[in-house]
Design brief:
single chain; about 170 residues; alpha+beta; Pnp Oxidase, Chain A; seven-stranded antiparallel sheet; 5 helices; globular
């Protein structure tokens, strides 16, 4: 595992509101029933091991960037208090799935500047979808660079690549 995952200790301990949990579980249900490919490359399923429980866990993350050539996935959690992130700091991620792509990953954390740039590019490329998705955690989809950067400082973003494809 790449050990360059480092957390920002100045983030809020935010979690999704309880009333949203059933809605947020829908993509996970699609993946578990073999229909995750319907979500295309906008979401990914991360399979990881709980750092305390040792149990296999699955988490759906928003994909901000997918490179079909290298199969690199850059994903972010909408909330800062992400157990998946803490888990992959402790134990290697087991698998990632997005669209029709599946592999055992190596990964590294994304700095806030890169997360902000990814948000800007994503919103520009997918304006309608961005308006919908940004409402879930309460973000402003047409934020300035400075606003995206401030938000990015509170989030966890990770770049995943197929194991064995990382640069030497």
């Amino acid at each position: 595992m790449n050990t360059s995952l480092q957390g920002n200790t100045n983030h809020k301990n935010a979690r999704p509101p309880a009333f949203m949990l059933p809605i947020l579980k829908l993509p996970l249900l699609l993946y578990r029933t073999g229909l995750g490919w319907l979500l295309g490359y906008r979401f990914m399923l991360l399979t990881h091991v709980g750092r305390r429980s040792g149990k296999v866990r699955q988490t759906v993350l928003a994909v901000l960037s997918f490179d079909p050539k290298t199969r690199e996935i850059k994903a972010v959690s909408a909330w800062s208090a992400s157990d998946w992130y803490k888990n992959i700091l402790k134990l290697p991620a087991l698998q990632v799935d997005t669209g029709f792509t599946r592999y055992v990953p190596v990964y590294h954390s994304l700095p806030p500047e890169e997360i902000a740039a990814l948000f800007e590019a994503y919103c520009s490329k997918h304006p309608i979808f961005s308006r919908i998705v940004c409402r879930i955690p309460g973000w402003k989809w047409n934020s300035s660079h400075e606003e995206w950067l401030e938000l990015a400082k509170t989030l966890r973003g990770v770049a995943f690549q197929p194991k064995g494809s990382e640069a030497a």
